[in-house]
Prior knowledge:
Number of helices: 3
Order of helices and strands: EEHEEHH
Helix content: 40-55%
Shape: elongated
Structural class: mainly alpha
Amino acid sequence: METEYKYICECGDCSYKSNHLGNFKNHQSNKHDYSREWNLCKECNLRFTNYQALISHTSKYHASPEELQRRKNLRSARNKRYRDSH
């Protein structure tokens, strides 16, 4: 049996819907508040409310192939040290 939800809040800027006013207000503030200063990703134009979130996003999704290989090598070395010590 499928439950049908009655949404009390529907965003006029996107398809977001919520039946909790607090969640809707958070959505509006975090996604559509154009008066605040945003940290903008230069690669894909995503907006972040804080600089650390932008740095995390950039290193995860826009790292160079060399950086990705370096991380892979570090993980391999850590895993080898762990296996050797147990």
